[in-house]
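tool_call: predict_structure(chain=1)
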Amino acid sequence: MNIEIRPYNKDYIQGAIYVWNEVVEDGVAFPQIELLTETSGDEFFLEQSFTGIAYDTDSEKVVGLYILHPNNIGRCGHIANASYAVRKNLRGNHIGEKLVIHSLSKAKELGFRIMQFNAVVKSNKHALYLYEKLGFVRLGIIPKGFLMKDGTYEDIVPHYRAL
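tool_result:
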């Protein structure tokens, strides 16, 4: 695999919504419930401060993506937030790590000073490990803060990192 992180454009819509919807359908990581369509997906990806596409130049496929946007407005607008998605059958190949590293650089480039993740699900061990490896600080635990697809509630672990 030869992964390049590219800016989103409509040429990537099919692959981007496929990867995004895989995570939404799993129901164990993203807060979203509704699946994206070509129309809603294009609008969603374009309204972000930046949407990065992990593109494998060998297979010519979208293999992951991230969205980057302000975590809040006004006096808290200097804090970025991001979400990451990797094709289910390609997880474990360090694509997520490349996406996170790229998003940190892009957030800084866009003038953000902090990256904050509000809802890292406690059972998402791979994400927790990666964020710790990349210097994020755990902010505590919000008990039963995430509704899993199966109807149970899971703790969430907010994180931040200065840029």
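agent: The mean pLDDT is 97. Proceeding to next step.
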